[in-house]
Automatic annotation (TrEMBL):
<keyword id="KW-0234">DNA repair</keyword>
<dbReference type="InterPro" id="IPR007581">
    <property type="entry name" value="Endonuclease-V"/>
</dbReference>
<keyword id="KW-0460">Magnesium</keyword>
<dbReference type="Pfam" id="PF04493">
    <property type="entry name" value="Endonuclease_5"/>
</dbReference>
<keyword id="KW-0479">Metal-binding</keyword>
<keyword id="KW-0378">Hydrolase</keyword>
<keyword id="KW-0227">DNA damage</keyword>
<keyword id="KW-0963">Cytoplasm</keyword>
<feature type="binding site">
    <location>
        <position position="111"/>
    </location>
    <ligand>
        <name>Mg(2+)</name>
    </ligand>
</feature>
<comment type="similarity">
    <text>Belongs to the endonuclease V family.</text>
</comment>
<dbReference type="GO" id="GO:0043737">
    <property type="term" value="F:deoxyribonuclease V activity"/>
</dbReference>
<feature type="site" description="Interaction with target DNA">
    <location>
        <position position="81"/>
    </location>
</feature>
<feature type="binding site">
    <location>
        <position position="43"/>
    </location>
    <ligand>
        <name>Mg(2+)</name>
    </ligand>
</feature>
<keyword id="KW-0540">Nuclease</keyword>
<protein>
    <recommendedName>
        <fullName>Endonuclease V</fullName>
        <ecNumber>3.1.21.7</ecNumber>
    </recommendedName>
</protein>
<keyword id="KW-0255">Endonuclease</keyword>
<comment type="function">
    <text>DNA repair enzyme involved in the repair of deaminated bases. Selectively cleaves double-stranded DNA at the second phosphodiester bond 3' to a deoxyinosine leaving behind the intact lesion on the nicked DNA.</text>
</comment>
Amino acid sequence: MKPVLKHNWDLAETEAIKLQQELSKKVTKEDQFPEIHYVAGVDVAYSEQSDLLVAAIVILEAHSLNIVESVIVEDSVQFPYISGLFSFRELPSIVKAFRQIKTFPQLVVCDGQGIAHPRRFGLASHLGVIFDIPTIGCGKTKLLGDFQEPSKERGACSLLMDREEIIGSVLRTQENIKPLFVSVGHRISLETACNWILKLSPRYRLPETTRQADQLVKKVLSKIY
């Protein structure tokens, strides 16, 4: 699976911000996808002892949630940690992993933000645009915005707002568990994104896509050290 849009990743902070502003205009916030048979989750873990990172893609069958393929890439950190520019730190390795997959997903769930981002172009939107694939941002924590706490039952949600703009939903995937922050990545509506996150989270707070990718990168890192 190859990117349809390529750009240089070795950018200064000001150049990266300018690129985000330009590419954010390409984000589509409506449902534009065929029937979804496979859903991918992506995650990156970092070594505490070196500049090593491990990127993983785990692809699940959409209805059974069984794993059908997984890919691991071991790489090194090339971009500093700068708030709002997370995709420049993680996506180069994730792109390498996507080049190796054999099962083409119709949807990707990212452990991070989509348009719930200062420039409306978080990691999920960036990934979606460069591959032109439907993506969802599903973060454990909020990057920005205001919201009212949703009620305690599974499926309860409230809007995540930045000033007067809706940038996401605060979605409770399990009863009495901390909610997740769901936002449009690319080629999907917010309502559909929330429905998919609930479908992918039948038992735990995190969607299976994120849970399985997270477990995989941690397992690989533990074997290295």
